[in-house]
Design brief:
Elements (H helix, E strand, L loop, with lengths): L1 H24 L5 H19 L5 H18 L5 H7 L2 H7 L7 H25 L1
Helix pairs in contact: 1-2, 2-3, 2-6, 3-6
């Protein structure tokens, strides 16, 4: 059952990456949507790596990880800015600290919890 669950989480990560990248291309979609989807992706990556962890612990760790990455964006040194100047660096590390990203991360993880409950947890309880 864990292999199937991990596969579902991996598929969700791929879908969320696609939707998140698409959200940056469509001008009418608020930028916070991409930030929320990034946090949702982090949640499902952690669920994929640690599917037996309690979901509350995974959710808390996801939010803390997102906050840590956001806080790291306030740090500027040539080496990290060089990484951030690449597409993978921008996608993973972001570019600049914004307080407004923090609520988007919380909402994104909450969205991940909702999806997780509907697709995996509720189904496994039956």
């Amino acid at each position: 059952m864990i292999k199937r669950t991990r596969l579902l989480y991996a598929i969700l990560v791929i879908v969320i990456i696609g939707v998140g990248l698409l959200s940056r291309k469509i001008a009418v979609i608020p930028l916070a949507t991409g930030d929320a989807l990034w946090a949702t992706m982090i949640y499902f990556i952690l669920r994929c790596l640690m599917p037996q962890q309690p979901i509350k612990r995974t959710a808390l760790f996801s939010v803390l990880l997102c906050f840590a990455v956001e806080a790291s964006q306030a740090y500027h040194a040539p080496w990290i800015d060089a990484i951030r100047s690449t597409l993978p660096g921008r996608l993973v590390l972001g570019q600049g600290f914004l307080w407004s990203d923090l609520p988007a991360y919380v909402l994104g993880v909450a969205f991940g919890l909702l999806i997780d409950y509907k697709l995996v947890i509720k189904k496994n309880k039956k």
